[in-house]
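To close the chapter, one final illustration. This time we ask the reader to focus less on the individual chains and more on the assembly as a whole: which components sit near each other, and how the overall shape emerges from the parts.
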Amino acid sequence: MSFLSYLINGISLGSVYAIIALGYTMVYGIAKMLNFAHGDVIMIGSFVVFITTSATGMNPLLAVLLSVVVCTILGMVIERLAYKPLRGASPLAVLITAIGVSYFLQNIALLLFGANPKSFTSVVKIPALNLAGGKLIISGETIVTIVTCIVIMIVLTMFMKTKPGQAMLAVSEDKGAAQLMGVNVNKTISLTFAIGSGLAAIAGVLLCSAYPSLTPYTGSMPGIKAFVAAVFGGIGSIPGALLGGVILGVIEILSKAYISSQLSDAIVFGVLIIVLLVKPTGILGKKINEKV
Amino acid sequence: MSMLKITDLEVYYGVIQAIKGISFEVKEGEVIALIGANGAGKTTILHTVTGLIAPKAGKIEFEGTDITKTPAHKIVSMGMAHVPEGRRVFAQLSVYENLKLGAYTRSDKTEIEETLEMVYKRFPRLKERRNQAAGTLSGGEQQMLAMGRALMSHPKIILMDEPSMGLSPIFVNEIFDIIKEVSAGGTTVLLVEQNAKKALGIADRAYVLETGNIVLTGEAKALMNDESIKKAYLGE
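The assembled structure is written out below.
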């Protein structure tokens, strides 16, 4: 029974990674850049929920909604101010800028909220599920996290069939050809940042509900792990983000349970190295064969 | 009336001048061929006209409107479609999804359906394969898809870049027949081709390009009998 319970916890943690990884992978697919500030958007989103619920006593669901709105706008503003001027610049310049934005957000949070960890009150109010006569307990947070992840995946798959979704896929394949169809590439990139950052807000709330300690650095480690998940699954691929995230979460929880909790991160990153050695494009990453 | 008018166009790639001040025009209903060897600047001209590259100097007018600085994504809805070199279909999307993206700037659903039926009628093979990923089509089929996709925007003028490149002779004939049909249907055509013989065969007028300059122009039929053209481009 304990194995099953670890497995479920792993899937739950992995679902959070998957939701964050979606932001990485979509932005990479469309803008061909790694947005290392993505993890810190999670942290900002969590602070929005923390402050509104603890200071103003706002309804948690309303607070989550507000956090999604704030992060969506934040994502679009970051793209507009920091990345858009660099369109056409070398990928290295964009990468360094993204790291800069990441530190900027962390330090803004440090200035506004201080370095002391805040104890985050879970927004999930549903009771835990008791199975097998109390031997297997699944917490409300776990259920909500997994269900949320599934819903997001379904909605996103449906969105990709809509006109803006198709425009995104077109831009990710061939920017120039997409422009010839009349697709506004700048708007499409902005939309991608909006969606990715909105999802980051949801991931942040889920993460902090399960691990209720919030600091300005809360987003950085899950951000990096979600990036690993995105690469692991095949960067640019949406199902890859889901698969990579869940596998990573399961590996992390199982190695914490059976091997060593100190070593779990080393194992997670070790797995990434092995995957990249064996299959550099990730599990579901496509090697683009161009027909000439 | 001239539909597309290019005046003293100059285009640079960094410090290298690719187009050295050329002027030409396309009148409504014409089929115009731009012919020339590799590197003459044919593709660069088309990319500049549809806004993918910004020119350093010169003017591009479409139906009397200056579009020199108009961004690429706004040009389609004005009535200009571009079939790019190498097809550039969206390989991971289905044939149907590619065609729908061709109508991206249009909003009337019934009109889009009508155009789709028209495209399917002209390219029955695309209808058969409408649910297949575009990347799995053969080169000739991809060319048809690229043309069908451009027609989905219901253009007044269609720019075609090397439509016969890399295709088998049978497909080449088919593609040129389709260009004739498109033209007969009332769409103006600006055709860039290395296959000078075929291009001159269907064009009204042609411009011959050499390293960024127009060196010769005239009626297509007259150019076909021009000794220098015969020697340099027709292999006779």
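Chain B has a mean pLDDT of 93. Strands of chain B lie at 2-13, 16-27, 31-36, 57-62, 65-66, 80-83, 157-161, 188-193, 205-210, 213-219. With these observations in hand, you are ready for the problems at the end of the chapter.
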